[in-house]
Design brief:
By secondary structure, the chain is mainly alpha-helical. The chain contains 13 helices and no strands. It folds into 2 domains: 138 residues, Tetratricopeptide repeat domain (Serine Threonine Protein Phosphatase 5, Tetratricopeptide repeat); 63 residues, Alpha Horseshoe (Serine Threonine Protein Phosphatase 5, Tetratricopeptide repeat), CATH 1.25.40. The radius of gyration is 21 Å and the shape is elongated. The N and C termini lie far apart (64 Å).
Length: 218
């Protein structure tokens, strides 16, 4: 077990250093061969359960130290899982989420991109890529991935509709913002923020304004 942990740590270190740099692809392959890792020896279900457990502990951790330790442990397990089945987008999405939480933007984008390359209609890959851009204030990119996640099936999430509404409100498109706030309220009628956001009289006033008419003709 100790040897396996050392192997996983070495692989994860290699990934941290080279995940987004194609010129190191051959180096990665050579290093992995030298480690003699036989991923067929790993149990998929056990590895996934361990990874998910570490990730769950990390996101609810009260201290940064506990969070970081469990994120690293989760990353190691998800990396193995990604190599057990290279066509499965799930561990790539999870690695993207981990790097997002760690503020390692290039790595997060690389793994979200890899997940979408495997399955471009993957709901979670599109949604969490949208989350990545939303938290960084890149709202146009966030909207693109949020809309795709809606299109591909994430339609029962009031928070998603709320965030899309926020984006349109930032774009000064009150009509579309109100549409998404209303859709979110249908899913979660008890959300006080959504109730406050929906203001039909404000929408009507906005639609009648010269500013709205100028936007409509552009």
């Amino acid at each position: 077990m100790q040897q396996i942990c050392k192997i996983i740590s070495a692989i994860v270190l290699l990934t941290f250093l080279t995940a987004t740099n194609c010129c190191f692809a051959n180096t990665i392959a050579d290093d992995e061969k030298s480690l003699n890792v036989d991923y067929s020896k790993f149990n998929t279900e056990v590895t996934k359960n361990a990874a998910d457990k570490f990730f769950k502990i990390a996101v609810s951790a009260e201290s940064e130290e506990e969070k970081n330790i469990n994120l690293e442990n989760a990353a190691a397990q998800y990396y193995v899982l990604a190599n057990i089945n290279k066509s499965d987008p799930y561990p790539c999405v999870q690695l993207g989420r981990i790097y997002d939480l760690q503020g390692k933007d290039l790595y997060a984008k690389a793994y979200f991109g890899r997940a979408l390359a495997l399955e471009n209609k993957n709901v979670d890959a599109n949604y969490y890529f949208g989350e990545f851009y939303y938290t960084r204030g890149q709202y146009q990119k966030a909207l693109e991935f949020y809309q795709k996640s809606l299109l591909y099936g994430k339609t029962a999430d009031a928070e998603l509709y709320k965030k899309i509404g926020h984006i349109y409100e930032r774009f000064a498109d009150v009509k579309r913002a109100n549409f998404y706030y209303s859709a979110g309220l249908e899913i979660n009628p008890n959300d006080p923020e959504l109730k406050r956001k929906i203001n039909k009289s404000a929408v009507k006033e906005y639609e009648q304004s010269g500013y709205y008419k100028r936007r409509s003709h552009n």
